[in-house]
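We treat protein structure as text, and this decision shapes the records that our systems exchange. The tokens are whole numbers drawn from a learned vocabulary of local backbone shapes. Below, we set out a record of this kind in full and without editing:
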Amino acid sequence: MINKKVGRIKAEDCVFVQVDIQEKLFPHISDNEQLEKNLVTLIKGLKLHEIPIIVNEQYKKGIGETIPSLRELTDEYPHFEKTTFSCCGNEDGLSAIKATNRNTVILAGIETHVCVLQTAIDLLEEGLNVVLVTDCVNSRKAVDKETAILRLTQAGVVPTTYESLLFELTVNAKNPVFKEISKLVK
């Protein structure tokens, strides 16, 4: 399937999908303290823009809950447990994404080369646009993250950073959330 070329990323077109940022895996992820800080900023900013959020968790019995700092930000949003690596392998999770009637999925989480990659590929095959927040994904090894981002970009995923994305969604300094977004990214 060929996706249309993605131009400006607009808040009203987006849904955020969080992938497997869980307690037992997170300590093993490269540069996890910075990743956590970036994810907290991203999620707070997306909430200011009223972007729907969908949380996915891989086999919670084995990998645990979403890490506490993100759990407190996302508790009120739908959570889906999965055993497939792709979030799209869980029919309820995929249905929740489609039910938002948004055509652009903002994607962040771990591990970039496994669950994030497979989710992104499946979302593209579903005809959705995928925006990968590259400073809000990671793996245990840098080469895995780098290779996954390269593959996903070649497949049609749009790479961005959390700061670039939050300002793109804001559009204008007159936007009512501009000052709050500016404070978040400082």
Q: What stands out?
A: DSSP finds eight helices and six strands in the chain. The mean pLDDT is 94.
